Predict the 3D structure of the following.
Amino acid sequence: MWKTVLRRIMIMIPEVIILSLLVFLLAKAMPGDPFTGSINPKSDPAQLHHLMEMNGLYDPWYQQYWNWVVHLFHGNLGNSYQYQEPVTRLIGSRAVNTIWLALLTTVLTYCFALPMGMFAAKHEGKLPDNIVRIYTYVTYSIPFFVVLVIGIWIFGYVLGWFPTTGSVSATANPGLPTAGSHLYHILLPSILGALFGTVNVVQYLRSEVIDAKRSDYVRTARSKGVPEKDIYKHHIFRNSLLPIAAFAGYSITGLLNGSIFTETVFSYPGMGLLFINSINYRDYTVITALVLIYGILNLLGTLLSDIILSIVDPRIRIE
Amino acid sequence: MVKTKNKVILSAVTLLAAVTLAGCSNGNSSSSSSGTTAQIKLKSSFKNSAATDKNATKNGTLKLAEVADSPFQGISDPVLASNAADSHVFSPGGLNNLFTVDKNYKIIDGGLANQKLDRKAKTATITIRSNGKWSNGDPVTAKDVEYAYEVLGNKESTTSQYSSDFENIEGMAAYHKGTASTISGIEMPDGEKGKKVVIHFKHMSPSMKFSGNSFIWGSAEPYEYIKNVPIAKLASSEQIRKNPIFTGPYKLDKIVTGESTSWVPNKFYYGKKAQIGHITINVVSSNNIVKAIQSKKYDSVVPSASGEVGGTSYKKLKNLKGYTKVGQPALSYSYFAFNLGHFDTKTGKNVADSNKKMANKSLRQAMMYALNVDDVAKKFGNGVAWRGNTLIPPVFTKYYDKSAKGYSLNLKKANKLLDDAGYKKRNGSKWRSDPKGKKLTIYFGGMSGNSITEATYQDYLQQWHKVGLNVKLYGGKPMEMNSFYDLLQKPSQNKIDLWTAAWSLSSEPSQSQLYGETAPFNMGHFVTKKNTELINKMNDSSAWNDKTRTKTFKQWQEYMNDQAGVVPEEFNYVWQPVNNRVKGFDFSPANNELFSDLTLTSSKLK
């Protein structure tokens, strides 16, 4: 298996190179540059040209690309034009926020979805099943940003239970209060994300459980007199987790993608918001770095999913 | 500067492409509301009659919101910052301003430093007050004043605020090129630790009397504190981002990068002592600000010259209980400009082309008379925006020409102007053709914003259609901001014939950078001999006399209105709601102690 993994990683290299080239060229093809619009009656275009030159933005694209690649191998993704600080530091600080938000959302999603899926499958075709199904369909069909806007309005502004902006309180003392404040800030978006993001897990789990219920080994277990509770716990549940496990690889790497909607509505400084801003400001270095990271994460996600799958289900081997 | 997305000017431009930082080196700004044609009258101060609650003030927190749709950049140094949001979130620290100003932004004595101009010797002498200190207790020295110019002019500096105007300082050009290691024209007679700086200029300009001029920088740099950081790395350094020091009434207590700043009184401040225990400033997105104020999460927004809450918010917030509205004319305006020539990159001059589609003055005037800007401003501006009548906004009380008529709706006049100039409908066509009988299609450009922007553009097109002009929106829809300026900043372009956009202004109103012959930002390339003459006269030796200078400004306004090469669209108020528990709020430009004045009358928001 490790041979296969290695081979997969080798194949990723040309993929990443092509991706980086595409990203680089597309970013440059956008109209404007990091300094368009940075004009006011007192600013001097000569200084803007000077800055463009200093940053090598007038060089031919292949030279810019080459410089970028050379820096990349030195672990230097360049400086953000907008934020005037190293891209690695900028992304690093945003990534932390995004990961915490995504992690809590994912954990809560599974906490809600797994019992719901089991419950629905257990009572297949009956009222509880229908309720869960309607719930998942309704939550699935409401656009998420609508949920966020309504959520922040009710719980943030009207009831005032949750903070509505940022990732931490401006006045929190260092140490435990700050950590608590961080948690408090991601609670509302995470709960909303989890409540309205259950559909995949619930539906996969439900249909798997229903399949498993009818399978031979369950019938055998039942005929042996294994208690119903144990059948679900030991026989059905584990086997039904397979498709969800396959999903997990993507989920883990997807943590970093950040949610553009959530971060925008809650003014939460994470990767999603950074991505949107960097496009608006033509912050090339940040755009290329982010897209490259996303690309690599997706490739890794596929690989991870395959590996997890093969661990969970010994019948599956990647060759 | 830069693309701040403040919804300041409602109609034409939600993307204010420029928010001047150089000019806003005073945390507060703008003048009283007298002499405007606004539909509502707002006062720039809120003198609360309730008594100050000493306990609430000392232990309380004043909560301010900074309206921004992206995290702020966190560059506390005014020389290096390039975004209005940064200057807002660090404003309680005073932005290291050197000078205090009067209501006309004229530099007066009494600030961290005094300035004295000597026309004969061609010098400016800056004397720092003896008790001027940084928030870490270090004294403010001559080197601190000088170092600002070094950071500004250094070849490696990341600032976008350097301009060739600074090369008026002796030796600056050589320093900027890197051929000299110091600026020879800046002298420290009492040494680096002294309190006196003498700047030698090649020529003197009357604009030097005003804050925000392009020759004398208005803030100090904490040299001792940052001297070990290479200038190229200053913007990303800890000293600037994590633990900056200031000279103002408050010092930074905590910063959450991109999100919030919190402030406590600075005991080393030379002026009126700060009274409120804590000030916090949180970034709130423009979509949330109305709700955030309505649910009383904030006392107010950060007082600023560019304005934080626009006209749509005004409609929603004006009757909110517990808050008082304050406002003053903005340091900005939106405008229409016509494409009249090109920029000659060899000579560095704008050249008017007589063969341009819009070269005919009558055509331009007619197009402006055809517009109903008054109605648009009334409908969408909610009283905080109104039709501009001249290119100097009313915030410049002294220079603003109140009596200027500008262009109000007059279809009859528009038609007559077009008929007389030979723009007639020929061969039964619905549209007018040009005097030579050729088909005339005019392309109008504008930036995308909100739904109001789009509706406004459609209204303008409709008005032009009414007088028989075939005007089309370039590209069929509003343009994305980068594409828009990318096109207009080309030395020559024939795609857009007229457009609308906005300028945020410096507090020094000279016009050479915007409409001068050599100004690269004169994107319509409007150049005439008379215009050049008038613009030069604003800062020649005659202009040292305030009366003459004022007269020149009025003449120029009259001339520009007649020529209609660039025509004002709307003026607006910067306004903000202030919670009734706040006392002593006054954001007129003459108030240099805005943050020190504030107290609280209760511990909870009203």
The domain at 87-312 of chain A is CATH 1.10.3720.10 (MetI-like fold). Chain A has one domain: 87-312.
